[in-house]
Amino acid sequence: MDTALRRSVLVVDDDAAMREMLISLLDEHSLRAVGAESAEAAVEQLRDHDFDAVLSDIRMPGRSGIELLGQIRELRPETPVVLMTAFGTIDSAVEAMRAGAFHYITKPFKRDAVLVALERAFERRALEDENRRLRRAVDRTSAFGELIGASPAMQEIYAMVRKVAENRSSVLITGESGTGKEVVARTIHFSGPRANQPFIPINCTAIPEGLLESELFGHVRGAFTGATTTKQGLFVKASGGTLFLDEIGDMPPGLQSKLLRVLQDHEVRPVGGMQATKIDVRVITATNKNLRDEMEAGRFRNDLYYRLNVIPIHIPPLRERVEDIPLLAEHFLRKHSGDARSSISKAGMERLLQRRWEGNARELENVIERALALAEGNEIGPDDLPPADDGHDTGTSTPVSLLKRAVETRLTLQELTDRYIEEVLQLTGGNKMQAARILGINRRTLYRRGEHHERPTHKDMVS
Question: Residue 373 has what pLDDT?
Answer without folding.
Answer: 86
